[in-house]
Amino acid sequence: MKIQKITDTSFRTYGRVIEGYDFSGLLKEMEHTARPMDKVIYVPSDESLESGNAALYLQNVIYGQLPVQVGYCNGNNRKLNALEYHRSSEVDIAADDLILLLGRQQDIEADFTYDTNLVEAFYVPAGTAVELYATTLHYAPCSADTANGFRCVVVLPRDTNLDLLTAPETEGEGKLLTARNKWLIAHEDAAIEGAFNGLKGRNIDLDQE
Fold first, then answer.
1. How many other C-beta atoms can be found within 10 angstroms of the C-beta atom of residue 198?
2. Taking a C-beta distance cutoff of 8 angstroms, is the pair 186, 192 a contact?
3. What 3-state class would DSSP assign to 137?
4. CA–CA separation, 124 and 96 (whole Å)
5. Which of 31, 44, 57, 137 is the Cys-Cys partner for 103 at CB 3.0 to 4.6 Å?
6. Could you report the per-residue pLDDT of 66-102, keeping only the tens digit for each?
7. What is the pTM assigned to this prediction?
8. Could you tell me which residues are beta bridge partners of residue 150?
9. Are strands 3-5 and 114-115 parallel, antiparallel or unpaired?
10. Digit-coded pLDDT (tens) for 11-53
């Protein structure tokens, strides 16, 4: 699989690089977060990341004063496993070099399946912030360096990815809803409990590409 740069024209389909703000203070706080080498962890909201000026900038400038949560996704991963989308943009800020596997919501079939051959890979250098548009399919980042794993700040509208308040619909798009503002299509190889296994084709593994 070709790993493209986020400065390539092809990335414009999926998002944009956020420039003009120094996120070094936020990334300094990320040094205190856990980075397991045998799995991936996700924390939707972290008080230490939300207490600084960066969180206010993200809320007021990037999200137009919409309340946000600032958390992180850390660990070690080289597989696709699933793809998700939100009704909103997601901001990812790479504390370490990482790779994003991305697709387009527009390519989901009428039966809510998706062909993994359409997925594209993008390298995100440490210190870089990107906005992934609401129509961009994504999941946990992949490690660019498997010896050290990755750490990534994840910013979303507040309460995204928290437990659902009521049971979702079992038909149509509702069967993809696994958390608040989170629609997910999994690969059967990932064995994600309760998820809709709609990814067709190979479960992309960067170690085998």
1. 20
2. yes
3. strand
4. 8
5. 137
6. 999 999 999 999 999 999 999 999 999 999 999 999 9
7. 0.97
8. 75
9. unpaired
10. 999 999 999 999 999 999 999 999 999 999 999 999 999 999 9
Confidence of residue 187 (pLDDT cuts 50, 70, 90): very high
Is 121 in contact with 143 (CB distance < 8 Å)? no
Token code pair at residue 4: 């493209």
Tokens matching residue 111: 């039966």
The tally of CA atoms less than 13 A away on the side-chain side of residue 156 is: 24
Paired tokens of 55:
């969180």
DSSP 27: H
Concatenated DSSP letters for 58-97? IIIIISTT--EEEEEEEE---B--EEEE-SS-EEEEESS-
Please classify residue 105 by burial: count the beta carbons closer than 10 Å to its beta carbon, then call 0-12 exposed, 13-18 middle and 19+ buried: middle
Asked if 92 contacts 129 with a C-beta cutoff of 8 angstroms, the reply is yes
Burial of 53 (0-12, 13-18, 19+ CB in 10 A): exposed
Domains and CATH numbers, the chain: 3-201 (2.60.120.10)
Q: How many CB atoms lie within 10 A of CB 117?
A: 11
| CB distance 14 to 119 below 8 Å | no
